[in-house]
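Working notes for the structural subgroup meeting. M.R. asked for a predicted model of this chain before we commit to crystallization trials. I am recording the input and output together here so anyone reviewing the notebook later can reproduce the run.

Input as submitted:
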Amino acid sequence: MKALIGVSTSARGGWRSFLAIRFALWRAGGKAVRITPDRPVDLDRLDGLVAGGGDDISATLYGGELVPDVRIDPQRDALEMELIQSAVSRGLPVLGICRGSQMINVALGGTLHANIWDFYEGAPRLRTVLPRKSIKMSPGSVLASILKCDECKVNALHHQSVKDLGPGLEVSARDGSGIVQAIEAVSGSGVLGVQWHPELMPFSASQRHLFAWFVQQASRPRHATAEGGDARSPA
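Returned structure, recorded in token form:
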């Protein structure tokens, strides 16, 4: 049987994101089921969790400053906080995409920059689905072993980013301005967040490796992941 992966998205408009992620997971050998606040799914059914992109995360969750004129979804925030915390405690692999990467950090006790350009004043204001942002991998990271590159080109659609890391997490990639572009579990377990949208780069071999690795993690016997099985061998 294919690994069943829950994919959390916004209830409004999130179907486009879900379709792109579902295709990427299907191509890697997994099966996706959509999760929204009005379409909850029992974690006991799932082999893994993808927290997708979308609306900003409410600053009230991490003690940040409220930013006017941004769209938030408190119901989704609450859902994903519970999903991520429960998945990690059960030993399920978790992949965060853009907002989802930030939510992993917040759910595990970290904080965010509400607007990266307020902190990284010289950072380029790059917002594109095309792979035009250069990022550098942290040597020895799980992510570097998956993508098989020291430097990669990715897309960029975010204006929030990781500030203080949650306990048990480490940075696995940054861009040229120092902005955190990926995080992962220190333990080497299958918890990984990327700031870009790999599902929107279907022709990139490195991004296909990312989904293949994740489906491989989700296909492992549950006890092997929960007991801290080595997640450093990419698909």
